[in-house]
Amino acid sequence: MRAFPLLLLGLCLAAPVRSIPAASTFRLPGAMCPGSDPIFRDGFEAAAPIPHNPSNGSGGAFPGNVTRTINVTGVGTRSYYLHLPPNYAPAQAWPVLFVFHGASGSAATAPAAAQQVRSDWSSWADSQGFIVVAFVGNQVQGGWGDPADGPEIDAVQADAFAAYNVEQSRVYLWGFSAGAHFGHGVALNNTTLFAAYGVSAGSLEQYACTDNGSYPPTCAALLSGAQPKIPVDIHLGNSDRLYTQYGAGNDPLRFQNGGWVSGQDLFYTLFNGGHAYTVAQLGEIWNNLCPFALGP
């Protein structure tokens, strides 16, 4: 069980990132997600047009772990970390998962935290067939919420999509702790970019919104206004202070009040444990995110 200190972010709004035009959530045929019911592979699943929007990028190194260094306007030289599955080939467009690490304690240790979450996701990327892109937070505690985060996410996305052939209808997001708080805000404010997202040890009220009026928007306003209703997976420990003290256990109801349906586009797991996640849980999260794409 990987655990980190709970460090809360400054309260500010997530900067928008580059998005693609899309208006609806599309459920993919089960055979497109490895591990699905084999009946789908036998031709019994109803045929449907599958969204396809390749970035047609090329030139990036593969497979395995890759570090790319880019210049971010107004920020400077920054590095980010990818993992390419062993069967990656540029001729095919691949799903991609953006991952956001938890607060590492300092800006100096944030790159190591980014590489750790990349490592934790790598076995699933290899077996399930997707690219991992791990970002590095700019906040002084090694987390998220710094004004540089938005431009850096934009620049990383542009670079990764130019270097690799990404299926832009299948861009996903996951975050842990501070990265989960931030991830709520990024995903819910960019529902025409992300097909689905997951959070481990995260809370809506720590960054994305609030119910007490201390900063805008309210959670009700944010969730009711989000279109389409982006599928979300929430994993939360029953001894996590976010659950026992800070009200994160109310987030599933907030989503339901905003139009999400449990078991359809809202997946909630309350597990025995604290402010942590396991690699096995990452597989559970991917199984809930993988079936979704963005369609016109």
UniProtKB/TrEMBL annotation:
Compartment(s): Secreted
Major localization class: secreted
Database matches in Gene3D superfamilies: alpha/beta hydrolase
InterPro entries: AB_hydrolase_fold, FaeB/C/D
Highest taxon in the source lineage: Bacteria
Keywords on record: Carbohydrate metabolism, Hydrolase, Polysaccharide degradation, Secreted, Signal, Xylan degradation
Annotated signal peptide: 1-22
Alphabetized PANTHER family for the sequence: FERULOYL ESTERASE C-RELATED (PTHR38050:SF2), PTHR38050
Name this protein carries in UniProt: Feruloyl esterase
